[in-house]
Amino acid sequence: MQTYEEQKAFVSKLNVIDDVFFQKMAEDREVAEEILRIILEKPKLKVIDSKVQRFLRNISAHSVVLDLICEDENHSIINCEVQKEDDDDHQRRVRFNRSNIDTIFVEKGLDYKELPDVYIIFISKFDTFHENRTIYHIDRVINETGTVVENGTHEIYVNTAIDDKSDIAELMQYFKKSVGQNPKFPKTCRRVDYFKKTREGASIMCKLVEDYAAEKLRQAEIQTASNFLRNGVSVDIVARSIPSLTREFIVELSKKIMQPSNI
């Protein structure tokens, strides 16, 4: 059992750019709203619904967990993701997240014209495009004319690596260091202080980190089991190799993997 001082010391090393810390920050709808108002430069934006760690199940392919997904007063959908490591094809990750979000609404029976606008905000500790900008807005453009063509999707990449002295950069620097107060985003600062400076907040954050680590380990084990099954390894051998997963779970996993694709 950690003492409060140990918990406080541990949490002091975390920052908003850490996905586990961001998750607890964004659980507060007013904090999520404040952050989105700054990044989207919409000072009157209203968040009417928000969820963190939203799991989108895709039986026939790779499922996805969204860090934060919100709906604003215009019923636009806003997905916000944080990423510290430059260890993946993040543009394709954004594409995959967006397609999964669209699928939700198609499955609800909406016509294409009824699909809401979708904003994908990717916040990283690195400059994704190496163009020395704090924020990048990606548009669909007709190559031959340069005309921007709208289809209701908006990709926005923000980073903590470049400080261009804008309000957005100021927020990103706070994401990276997460200390002190700033009148431009007081709700965000107050929530950081709750986790870093109160006994209750530090305890909640430490428990979340422990649970997050355990879930990461479980997901890695499930991925390993899936790889074994796809390569023809029997259920019994997989069960013996990964004893933390029950045989019943591995049997069900095998059934899902063996389902024919709809494509």
Describe the protein:
With 263 residues, the chain is α/β, with parallel strands linked by helices. The protein folds into 2 domains: 4-197; 216-258. Helix content is 45%, strand content 17%. It has 9 helices and 6 strands. Strands 1-2-3-4-6-5 form a 6-stranded mixed beta sheet, with helices on both faces. A hairpin with a 4-residue loop joins strand 2 (64-72) and strand 3. Helix 6 (186-197) crosses helix 7. The chain is globular. Mean pLDDT is 88; it is low at 57-61.
**Number of separate helices:** 9
What's the number of domains? 2
What topology, given as strand order, has the largest sheet? 1-2-3-4-6-5
Q: List the secondary-structure elements in sequence, H or E.
A: HHHEEEHEEEHHHHH
SSE map:
Blueprint (H helix, E strand, L loop, with lengths): L3 H8 L7 H8 L2 H11 L7 E10 L7 E9 L4 E7 L6 H18 L10 E7 L10 E4 L14 E7 L7 H11 L8 H12 L1 H32 L4 H7 L5 H12 L5
In short:
By secondary structure, the protein is of the alpha/beta class.
Label this structure with key terms:
single chain; 263 residues; alpha/beta; 6-stranded mixed β-sheet; 9 helices; 45% helix
